[in-house]
Every structure is written in C-alpha cells, then in structure tokens.
Design brief:
Layout lengths: L1 E2 L6 H10 L2 H12 L4 E2 H8 L3 H13 L3 E6 L8 E6 L5 E2 L6 H15 L2 H24 L11 H10 L4 E3 L6 E6 L5 H6 L1 H16 L6 E5 L8 E6 L1
Helix pairs in contact: 2-4, 3-4, 6-9
C-alpha cells in the first residue's frame, strides 16, 4: 500500500492512531514475518495478551488494509477458527510525495536496454558491493582498519533497521544464514531480478567482507518464494 499526500490527513491520522501502540506494532511485525496465517489465540500467546485484546489489535490492522482475515478448519471439527495474514502490501508515507520508484524503474529500463544482461548484473553487484563496504566502514568507525568485515549480527541490525525484516536462520558451524522476509525493492526486483537482486547481494557481501563465491541462495522472493534465504560460508 502506497500512501501519498492527503489534503485532509484523515488516513495519516488513522495510521498514527493504529501504529502509536507499541504492542500493535509488534503484532504487525509478527504477522509480516509469519509463514502462515495466525489466529488471535496464537498472537495472544506470543505477546502475553488476552485473546480479545489480541483480536482487537488484529482488527485495527485489518481496517488499514495491511492485514486480511480468513478461516482455518479446526482439527477436532466445529466452527472454523478466524485467521489473520499480512497482505504483502507495502506501507509508504511521504510528505510531500516522492517519485523515486518511477525514476528507478526508468533507469533500470535504460540499463536493461543499453547493456548486455551479464554486464548489467556484474555492474549492479559491483555497485552494491561498494555501497556495502562504505556502509560497513561508517558503522565500524574511524579507528578500525580497512577493509572492514562486519559481524553477521551487525549486518542483521543494519538490514533490520532498513526494513528488510531479516532474521538469522539455522546454520552449521562456519556458515551464516540470513532470511529476508521483506524485500525493500520488492516491486522492482520482480521486474528486474537480474539487476536488483544482484545489487542487493553485492551490498550484503560488501558489508560481510566476503567474496560472492562463498554465497548460496536457496529461496528468492522475486521468484515467488516466501523469503530470500542467503547462506554464507565464513
């Protein structure tokens, strides 16, 4: 969901009211990261709430169109349980509205039309890696010798703050697994995966200070998977 400027501010007022509650923000993040629809009872257990309170939070999120409801059959029969799931819509508020996505799409079309696919993908990765290295250096500070290789948790913190909805997956010794549930370039990555996804991978490799050869990707949002799953051998 993209929200731009509204003269009367009614939607922004509702938005502030809904997300002004820290518990409701937590419930929204929980649904955004959940693999399957959840019930009010399940949300109540996670957050230590009464079921009716959890349901009230979920219904407020439904009012904004960020969550939708459905039903799930109960194992023992009887009335189906009401479930809630994140709609996958993006919430973006800008005052006044910006048109960066339109500009990005135009530039990506230009790259796609003027460069060979392999060259465009390589250039995107290189640009991403440079940005990742510069970001890692800023995070590490002036007293750390270059090049900087951030710890996985530091990369996770940066990505989480940037809105990726990322978590550390189960991994074997010597391997780090990053699971991304919210691609911040989602619409563009679906149209230009060979460029956008390569740029994104370059950023992470640059922050970790690793070569692409140590990376394996098993899931990809732009191809219809429920997440992007990146494995790095460190």
């Amino acid at each position: 969901m993209e929200t731009t400027y509204e003269k009367d501010g009614k939607y922004l007022g509702r938005l502030a009211d809904v997300f002004g509650d820290p518990t409701r923000r937590g419930v929204y993040r929980h649904l955004r990261e959940a693999a399957d629809p959840v019930t009010a009872t399940e949300v109540a257990e996670v957050f230590g709430l009464h079921r009716t309170v959890a349901r009230a939070h979920l219904e407020r999120l439904c009012e904004l169109g960020l969550v939708e409801s459905g039903t799930r059959r109960r194992a023992g029969g009887g009335r189906p349980a009401k479930t809630y799931v994140h709609t996958g819509e993006r919430l973006e508020v800008m005052l006044p509205p910006r048109r960066y996505e339109m500009l990005s799409r135009t530039l990506l079309h230009l790259i796609e039309d003027s460069m060979e696919a392999d060259a465009a993908a390589a250039a995107a990765f290189s640009l991403g890696r440079t940005f990742g290295e510069e970001t890692a250096a800023e995070i590490a500070g002036d007293n750390v010798q270059r090049p900087v290789a951030l710890a996985p948790k530091a990369v996770l913190a940066w990505m989480d703050g940037a809105g990726y909805g990322v978590s550390l997956g189960n991994s074997a010794p010597g391997k780090v697994v990053l699971e991304v549930h919210n691609c911040v370039y989602r619409e563009l990555s679906e149209e230009f995966p060979d460029i956008v996804c390569r740029l994104d991978l370059g950023i992470v490799c640059g922050m970790l200070g690793v070569d692409e050869a140590v990376h394996t990707q098993t899931h990809q949002l732009s191809r219809g998977d429920g997440m992007c799953r990146h494995e790095f051998r460190l």
